[in-house]
Amino acid sequence: MGLFLAAPLAPQADGLNTFKSVNANPAIKVTASSPHLRGVFWRVFAAVFVTVMITGAAITFVLPEMYASTARVSIIHDQPDVVGHNWPAVRGIDFVFNTNSPTYDPYFILTTFEEMQSVIVLSNVVVTLNLNAKWGQRYYGGQTLTMYETIALLKKHLQLAPVGNTKLVSITSFSEDRNEAAAIANTVAGCYVDIRQKQQVLATQKSIAILQAQYEDEEQEIHTLQSNLVLIEQQHHIESGSVDTGKNPDQAIANAKSYLNEKHQLEKRQELHQLLKEKIEYEKHGSLLPVNSGAALTDYAEPGKYPVRPNKPLCLALTLLMATVLGVLAGGVAVWLARRQENAKG
After folding, report:
1. Contact 191, 125 (CB under 8 A)
2. Are 256 and 243 in contact, with CB atoms under 8 Å apart?
3. How far apart, in whole angstroms, are the C-alpha atoms of residue 25 and residue 154?
4. Residue 305: inside a domain
5. Range list of β-strands (E), the chain
6. Going residue by residue through the chain (346 aa), what tens digit of pLDDT does each one get?
7. Is 300 helix (H, G, I), strand (E, B) or coil?
8. Domain total in the chain
9. Quick one: 57 and 73 in the same domain?
10. Four-CA torsion 211, 216, 220, 222, nearest 10 degrees
């Protein structure tokens, strides 16, 4: 193809317009039919180019315009926690409510994304915005969609992404209606935060229940130790810390050590018991305060001003490139076929 476009036209002495062959082989010599072949190339190129451009432009402008809106949520990594703090040892008793120190979780963001797209979150979004009926009317000719059909469609309209170097997650929604796109993004964010708050309330209630059970166990243990001390005092005649050595001083000293050990254990248990009581009161007081769920809606989505899909300038540029490439290829094939036909006749 390049041979016929680039080879210069050289006039001969006899006045006939012919082309000089680029190669020395006379079998490849271009004769006076080259203007005809050039016409074939340009006619085919023009036909293919115009067809592709018209088709691509028609598809680009027929596709529905999609608007995007983005809401942002602040996420804090929850730690497994019964009481909220690691408590120090109490006089030798290694009493720790939470032995799990904060660690890096490589799956935290992915887990958060799955939670945001879970049925429990998206079903609330569908009900709040009445998407079963709206999208059934828009996409399925008025047929009301089921919850799972709408959720599957809703997931295709969502795009979740972490915001670099922050604890924020962006929730972007796409829709043909700019106001609906903003409403979906805000509702997904709001439903996720609400569910995190409810989970935090349940976790706090469970924490209080665990502490209360442990408090009652410690209380029972204290009663047992107190009974043991009274029994030791009665058996060995121990009163106000004084020991009656009697006829067997060694046995009396052993009894005194046992008594002091039991008393020491009782004091530690009583201190632990008081610590549990304070913690229960702290948790109950905290449950009355506004819930810190570890998630908060930081930026509300606003309706988009301009459509983001399809990208018409990009689509038209790609269509132009494709039309040019296909036109050149089709023109080259047409010239090659025409030349073969001429050689067969010659």
Report:
1. yes
2. yes
3. 67
4. no
5. 9-11, 17-19, 67-75, 158-162, 168-175, 238-239, 242-243, 295-299
6. 443 444 444 444 343 343 344 344 444 444 445 778 888 899 999 999 999 999 998 888 888 888 999 999 998 765 444 444 444 444 444 444 444 444 667 788 898 999 999 999 999 999 999 999 999 999 888 889 999 999 999 999 999 999 988 889 999 999 999 999 999 999 999 999 998 888 878 877 888 888 888 888 888 888 887 887 777 777 766 665 555 555 566 666 676 777 777 777 878 888 887 887 788 777 776 655 555 557 888 899 999 888 887 778 888 899 999 999 999 999 999 999 988 888 887 6
7. coil
8. 2
9. no
10. 60
- First-to-last alpha carbon distance for the chain, in angstroms, is 20
Question: Are residue 134 and residue 20 in the same domain, yes or no?
Answer: no
Same domain, 294 and 340: no
Q: Which of 311, 303, 263, 318 is nearest to 68 (CA)?
A: 303
Looking at the fold, whether 277 and 319 belong to one and the same domain comes out as no
CA distances from 271 to 59, 74, 99, 160, 277 (A): 78, 40, 20, 50, 10
CA distances from 260 to 163, 228, 242, 325 (A): 61, 12, 11, 97
Would you say the C-alpha torsion 101, 102, 104, 105 has a positive or negative sign? positive
**Would residue 323 count as lying in a domain?**
yes
Same domain for 83 and 168 = yes
Question: If we measure between CA atoms, which residue out of 326, 335, 342, 339 comes closest to residue 5?
Answer: 335
Same domain flag for 179 and 214: yes
Q: What is the pTM of this model?
A: 0.60
Range of the structural domain that residue 159 is part of: 67-299
Domain termination residue (choose one: 299, 318, 336): 299
Nearest-CA neighbor of 338 among 47, 50, 48, 39? 39
Starting at the earlier edge strand, list the strands of the sheet with 295-299. Answer: 158-162, 168-175, 67-75, 295-299
**Residue 49: inside a domain:** yes
Peptide bond into 310 cis (omega under 30): yes
Beta bridge partners of residue 46, listed in sequence order: none
